[in-house]
UniProtKB/TrEMBL annotation:
Superkingdom of the source species: Bacteria
Keywords: Signal
NCBIfam families to which the protein is assigned, alphabetical: T9SS_PorP_fam
Protein name per its UniProtKB record: Type IX secretion system membrane protein PorP/SprF
Source organism (scientific name): Pontibacter fetidus
Length: 323
């Protein structure tokens, strides 16, 4: 039991008090509008499916038996729907950190407003979140101080805004508007409610922007940035990527007080419908508490823009009457 004491202290500090559940971060944020804002749904006029797998701090050896490297799988899909004057989308995510697994399923709707050569989206989102605590192995059987395997599921809301044109995009969103509180009981029966472990979902605020700047005739330079705030911590990403012939891209990224990164990718098939990308992060801050590298793989498939099957009636007067 003495050997387990430091671990128990860490567990109790995390479980017995209110804490914020941080959401995962991605270096492919410029391809990941659905995770940043529900207003992105359908804004590009093309149905799209995006999948990103991130392995953060590869090989990190934490105190817990299962390790501490965050591993995240994200799947999003969105499509324009003319009858709804906007678009709809879904997000599915599984985020695992040590013995805790965070699972999200979200449904989004965006109302589109044409503005000049672009389009403005106003989005809302409803989601189901589940946080599951993993297993802990005490030295002494039936130790009441060690949390029991448990999970809790809550409903929550989000909202966002997004503007998209052929040369510029900007948008953002806020999550966890209801600030749901998750509870996890210890093994000891009859424990008081005020002694249960609680985990509070704080608001996460995102803001992002990018500008497509033509360079020569076949190169496009895109400066991009992302701001993140979870009511306790502030962070930002800033970078740029260059695209050649609308098929190949390479870029760099800087994450505030954490890492520098690089990303490469290419588009395949007709109309560049399939996009494949890879991102690499190198930790440059707090190296002792983290592993040196993080890795991401991105797959995206975009369908052609839906055709207009029913054209609106046009009134063309055949006769003119004058007095």
């Amino acid at each position: 039991m003495k050997k387990l004491l430091p671990v128990l202290v860490l567990i109790l500090l995390c479980v017995q008090h209110l804490a914020a559940q941080q959401q995962p971060q991605f270096t492919h944020y410029s391809f990941n509008g659905m995770q940043l804002s529900p207003a992105y749904a359908g804004i590009t006029n093309r149905p799209e499916i995006v999948s990103i797998y991130r392995y953060q701090w590869l090989g990190y050896d934490a105190t817990f038996d299962d390790g501490g490297s965050p591993q995240t799988l994200l799947l999003t899909a969105n499509t324009p729907v003319r009858l709804l004057h906007g678009g709809v989308g879904i997000n599915l995510m599984r985020d695992k950190i040590a013995n805790t697994t965070y699972t999200v399923a979200a449904l989004s709707y965006s109302f589109h407003i044409p503005i000049r050569e672009g389009k403005l989206g106003l989005g809302v989102q409803g989601n189901v979140n589940n946080i599951k605590k993993g297993s802990y192995r005490p030295n002494d059987d039936n130790d009441p101080s060690v949390p029991n395997n448990s999970s809790d599921t809550k409903y929550d809301l989000g909202a966002g805004i997004w503007y998209e044109s052929s040369t510029f995009y900007a948008g953002g969103g806020v999550t966890n508007l209801l600030k749901s509180e998750y509870e996890f009981a210890n093994q000891e029966d009859g424990i008081d409610d005020d002694k249960k472990g609680r985990l509070l979902s704080e608001n996460h605020i995102y803001a992002t922007a990018g500008y497509h700047l033509p360079v020569l005739s076949i190169f496009i330079l895109t400066p991009m940035a992302l701001i993140k705030h979870d009511t306790e911590t502030f962070s930002f990403d800033a970078g740029a990527k260059i695209t050649y012939d609308e098929k190949y891209w390479a870029g760099v990224n800087y994450r505030h007080k954490e890492a520098v990164g690089a990303l490469i990718g290419l588009s395949l098939f007709t109309d560049n419908s399939l996009r494949v990308g890879y991102a690499f992060d190198l930790t440059i801050f707090n190296k002792v508490a983290k592993a040196p590298t993080s890795h991401e793989v991105m797959l995206s498939y975009r369908l052609p823009e839906p055709a207009v099957r029913f054209k609106p009636p046009m009134r063309t007067p055949r006769y003119n009457f004058t007095k």
